[in-house]
Amino acid sequence: MTVKKIKGILLLIFVIVVVYIINQIAFFHDKEFERAVRDTLSSQYMDYTTKRDKPIFGIIWKKDLEKIVILSLNVREYHVKNISDIRYFKNTKAIWIIYRGAYEGDTSIYEEENLLNNIYVAKNFKNLNMISLYHVKVNKDIKVMFPNVDVFIE
Known about the structure:
InterPro entries: LRR_dom_sf
Structural class: alpha/beta
Largest sheet: 5 strands, parallel
Helix content: 25-40%
Keywords: Membrane, Transmembrane, Transmembrane helix
CATH architecture: Alpha-Beta Horseshoe
Number of helices: 4
Number of strands: 5
């Protein structure tokens, strides 16, 4: 074999490995959603009530997000505009999207028009049995979209 062929084969192997590794990384469309994941992700939960001491730095692997069984997101603290990245949480059993009030009795609503536009991504989640939407603007008939899931809208 010539040196050019060996270099070509090595380059091809390198490209294949890089593409494989990049395919295992979770890339987020919404930076606030990513910030929420980095701040609140634990072994099986992503919960807005428990923040990590230090956010996750570096790579977030898709396989780690697939282990999450409860996805809880406070859109008051994290001003998420696009939830299409819930696709990484395909084994979750519950999705909570909550706008926690600034004070006791606060009934204001998160007015982001397009927040739930991509909720349909969760239709393919096999383990999903509950969606809770608390004080977020609902512009679609979520209950019809998820007939086999308990959907709570407040």
